[in-house]
Specification:
single chain, mainly beta, Maltoporin, Chain A, 22-stranded antiparallel β-barrel, five-stranded mixed sheet
Length: about 725
């Protein structure tokens, strides 16, 4: 399949950009200012919307999802493990600076900064040595008001109603302010992670006769707690200190109940299983930075992050013939993990000419993953209290510590060629050592050269072309190095680890066309991309014999990904609704890799065929009311995930969310939201084979249908 034909490309691009006459988008009010590839929205622009937080302000800006990195292709990057270190940090700046954090990054602060604290918001479409990050797309720069003394308090309280009529509270309290040279933002929030899932599974024999049905109810009663603090101290225009703190905690116990109806004997027989899955997770992070500006305009920057994530979970499974009968424990699993990240980055930036800037720096990182897995089964022998009273299973590579020490030397060159052209080029030289200890001892080292070239051409103030070529190296998931719980297939309790896993690499080529309609009428963005993938990570064969099949995550081989991503965000001034915003996105992809495990070509996970989304938001002038909806769905109804003896066809989930807000009594904002309005179900089908999947001897077909129901949320927000 060829996603894009060259003969259709010009018509796609130019019809998307130029089909609407300029006069249709005339707007009124305080207009944003476009200057030198930067669009500036003053705080007065948002006054008509009565925003409570920065997030409310951003929701009114056309094309903001592109700058926020909410696209479908971006979510694929997160699936692969994301970028390494601080060089690929958030594209969101506060006062021109990024927060030195991973979990505690600026993106997570948008709903906690009061709108009253904002002076203006910039959408930066260009590149410059003055920016605190490399600008790979668009940057959001939130500039706060300056005053000797200022403060504001924001609060949000609400409740959520779930499928089983459970009602859970949530709330956020934030304080933002300034005292002389010290500015601060402190917030605490709690939110429900409650989830109830109803799943029906139908098991069929190869001749499509009934084998078994399974009805499953899964309840996760989770509560999330978070505390954030961001402090900035600027004693002079030459020196700036910042400190960022985060602590979060979750306690998500899960209970399951399965009802089996067995038809294999010709007579329906019913049995039951239940599970208790208590777990606990916490995360803390400290990040900070220091910046000194020299008299000649040069800058020295020092950033650091210390992050610690810990999670422990237990799975106990019991079987019984009828409710109230004696239960028999048939599985016990304890899984523990601790992930620690320490990063130090230092750099020196100086303009070598009025039009050129150079940044030189070094980044050092230590990443450690501790993993443990214990399994008990009702086998012959003496049970152990540490294994739930069951017999311990001899599990290879169940206890591991993986440590990576990484060094990066980098150089970034910014060149403003002329008023319309700019070029950013960078080169990163990376050296790393990965050592695994525990049940398996292994040590390896790696080195990479990662160049990047980023060229921008402003055809005019509205129309921009952006070309990038870069070498990308994914972050390994160190949990894959040792044995782990299998969350995708409950009939296979564990996945073997792979101490020889190496990084997935890719050469990435992007062509981006961005057009801003006149008078802030909207944005049309078209991106074409091609990735040349090396060492793709997927399932590989580690079977000890043809009769004992086993697979694990490993490096499959080389492949390719290509696609088209089209996004539009348009104000509906042409139909008399200048404060209504219509958004749409369409992603289509093609990917190919020759997989020896299954003996054929397949798609590169997670790049499926694509997805689409629609959104609408209308602010009713003078009434304090806004309402809208967001709809998202995939265009690939049978995305396959292959394993050594089975294949899982993933249905494309859909979701419709509708909302309505009203600014009313005491200046508060009241919001109602309904999620998964049409109660869409996640459809899946798994086909199991006798022996290797590539031999195509079908053994069983399993069909799943899962629903987590319609959820309702009511919130009250305000700034004081």
């Amino acid at each position: 399949m060829h996603v894009i034909s060259s003969r259709f490309l010009p018509s796609i691009v130019f019809s998307s950009i130029f089909w609407l006459p300029n006069y249709l988008f005339a707007q009124s009010g305080n207009e944003p200012v476009t200057d030198d590839s930067t669009v500036t929205y003053p705080s007065s622009y948002f006054s008509q919307f009565a925003p409570v937080s920065v997030r409310d302000m951003l929701d009114r800006i056309p094309g903001i999802d592109l700058a926020l990195g909410n696209g479908n292709d971006v979510r694929a990057e997160r699936f692969l493990g994301g970028t390494r270190g601080l060089g690929g940090s958030s594209q969101i700046l506060i006062d021109g600076k990024r927060l030195a954090g991973k979990e505690n990054e600026a993106r997570n602060q948008l709903s906690r900064i009061a709108a009253a604290e904002v002076q203006y918001i910039e959408i930066v479409r260009g590149t410059s040595s003055e920016l605190d990050v490399q600008n790979s797309g668009q940057l959001i720069n939130i500039v706060l008001r300056e005053a000797q003394t200022r403060s504001s308090l924001s609060a949000e309280v609400g409740v959520r109603r779930f499928q089983d009529s459970s009602i859970k509270p949530e709330g956020t309290l934030s304080m933002t302010g300034q005292r002389g040279a010290l500015s601060y933002q402190v917030s605490a929030n709690t939110s429900p992670g409650y989830r109830i899932e109803d799943t029906f599974e139908l098991s069929l024999n190869p001749d499509l006769s009934f084998n078994e049905t399974v009805e499953l109810e899964r309840i996760t009663d989770r509560t999330n707690y978070n505390f954030n603090s961001n402090l900035t101290y600027e004693p002079s225009s030459e020196n700036r200190f910042a400190l960022n703190l985060l602590y979060s905690e979750q306690d998500p116990p899960t209970k399951l109940l399965r009802t089996f109806t067995d038809f294999s004997t010709g007579l329906a027989s019913i049995s039951y299983e239940r599970e208790d899955n208590p777990s606990r997770a916490n995360n803390w992070e400290i990040g900070g930075d220091y910046e000194h500006v020299f008299g000649n305009g040069a800058k020295y920057k020092l950033l650091f992050i210390v992050n610690d994530r810990k999670q422990d979970s237990t799975r106990e499974r019991f079987e019984f013939l009828s409710p109230g009968d004696l239960e028999f424990k048939n599985l016990f699993i304890v899984n523990g993990s601790r992930y620690r990240d320490k990063i130090l980055r230092t750099s020196y930036t100086q303009n070598v000419t009025p039009a050129q800037g150079l940044e030189l720096g070094l980044e050092v990182a230590q990443t450690t993953q501790d993993s443990s897995l214990r399994i008990g089964l009702p086998l012959a022998g003496e049970g152990s209290p540490g294994f739930g009273g069951l017999v311990a299973v001899d599990l290879p590579n169940a206890f591991a510590t993986v440590e990576e020490i990484r060094y990066e030397a980098f150089a970034i060159h910014n060149w403003r060629i002329n008023a319309r052209m700019s070029l950013e080029s960078s080169l990163i030289a990376e050296y790393s050592r990965i050592e695994q200890t525990g049940d398996v001892d292994n040590a390896r080292h790696f080195d990479f050269l990662k160049p990047k070239v980023d060229f921008r051409y402003d055809i005019n103030n509205s129309f921009q072309m952006h070309l990038t070529i870069e070498k990308f190296v994914s972050q390994l998931r160190f949990a894959d190095f040792s044995a782990a719980t299998n969350l995708m297939d409950e009939d296979q309790d564990t996945i073997a680890g792979n101490p020889e896993l190496i990084q997935e690499e890719s050469w990435r080529y992007n062509v981006n066309l961005d057009y801003r309609l006149p008078n802030d009428g909207g944005v049309v963005n078209v991106r074409l991309f091609y990735f040349d993938v090396e060492n793709h990570i997927g399932r590989i064969d580690i079977s000890p014999s043809p009769t004992k099949l086993k697979s694990t995550n490993g490096n499959v081989g080389d492949g390719s990904v290509s696609g088209l991503n089209l996004n539009t965000s348009i104000r509906l001034g042409m139909v008399g609704l200048p404060s209504a915003l219509l958004t749409a996105g369409f992603l289509v992809q093609n990917s190919r890799i020759d997989d020896a495990l299954i003996g054929k070509m397949r798609k590169v996970v997670p790049y499926d065929r694509g997805s689409f989304n629609f959104g609408f938001r209308h602010d009713m002038s003078g009434s304090g009311i806004n309402y809208g909806f967001n709809y998202r769905s995939g265009i690939d109804g049978n995305r396959p995930l292959y394993d050594i003896d089975n294949v899982l066809f993933m249905g494309s989930p859909s979701n419709l969310t509708v909302f309505a807000e009203k600014q009313g009594f005491a200046g508060l904002t009241y919001r109602f939201e309904a999620i998964n309005v049409f109660n869409y179900k996640q459809k899946q089908e798994r086909r199991r084979f006798s022996g290797y999947l590539r031999d195509d001897v079908l053994k069983e077909i399993e069909r799943f249908s899962t629903s987590d129901g319609i959820r309702f949320t009511f919130k009250v927000r305000g700034t004081f």
